[in-house]
Design brief:
about 190 residues; mainly alpha; 2 domains; two-stranded antiparallel sheet; 4 strands; about 40% helix; about 5% strand
C-alpha cells in the first residue's frame, strides 16, 4: 500500500466526510480500500460514477452501490430554520467541514457553499430545525469544492488534535501543581 495510491483513491471520493461508508471520513475509507479492507462500492455520495472511477483506478471490475450503505441521491445541503434554532451548538461538533456558524444561545446558520451535505448535523439537533434542501444553482459540488472540503476537514482534525494536546498539557500541569501543594502541606 503506497501513500500515492491512497491519495489517488481519496481524490476520487466526494469528500463529503459523511461516514456512510462505515469509516470516519473519506481518507480513512481510501486507506481501507488501498489495504483491501473495504470494497469500492460503499460511498452513496460518490454513487455509481465514483465506483466506476475507483474500479478504473484499481483495474478491477465495477459493481453496483452496496445498498447497505445507503442510496445514491442528488446532493443536498443543510439549512437551519433560524426561527426554530435555540443556539444549543450541538450541530457544530459533528460538521466535518465547519460549515455551520453560531454561538451558544445564538441563532446558527449554514454556509451553504461549504456544506458537504453529509447530514451529520441533523440527528444532534434537539429541536429538529435542520433540514436538507437542494443547493442553489451556483452551488456545484465539483473538484474545487471537494478539495476545499478536504482542506476544511483536515484543518478541523488538526485543530481538534491541537486542542486535545493543550487539554492534556493543562491537566498534567494541574496534576503537578496538586502534587506540589500536597507535598508542601505534608511538610
Amino acid at each position: 500500500m503506497s501513500a500515492d495510491l491512497i491519495d489517488h483513491i481519496d481524490a476520487l471520493l466526494p469528500q463529503t466526510q459523511c461516514t456512510q461508508c462505515g469509516f470516519n471520513g473519506c481518507k480513512p475509507y481510501a486507506e481501507a480500500i488501498a489495504k483491501n479492507q473495504a470494497d469500492i462500492n460503499q460511498c452513496p455520495p460518490g454513487g455509481q460514477t465514483g465506483i466506476d472511477k475507483l474500479a478504473d483506478l484499481l483495474n478491477i471490475a465495477s459493481k453496483p452501490l452496496n445498498a447497505k450503505y445507503g442510496i445514491e441521491q442528488p446532493r443536498q445541503v443543510a439549512f437551519i430554520i433560524e426561527q426554530d434554532c435555540i443556539g444549543c451548538t450541538k450541530c457544530l461538533p459533528p460538521c466535518p467541514v465547519d460549515a455551520i456558524l453560531g454561538a451558544n444561545k445564538y441563532m446558527h446558520t449554514v454556509i451553504a457553499h461549504e456544506c458537504s451535505g453529509c447530514e451529520l448535523c441533523i440527528d444532534p439537533c434537539p429541536v429538529n430545525c435542520i433540514v436538507m434542501q437542494a443547493p442553489q444553482a451556483d452551488n456545484v459540488w465539483d473538484e474545487t469544492a471537494q478539495n476545499r472540503a478536504r482542506q476544511r476537514h483536515q484543518a478541523k482534525l488538526l485543530r481538534q488534535t491541537q486542542l486535545e494536546k493543550e487539554k492534556a498539557a493543562r491537566a498534567e500541569k494541574q496534576k503537578q501543581l496538586l502534587a506540589k501543594l500536597k507535598a508542601a502541606k505534608n511538610n
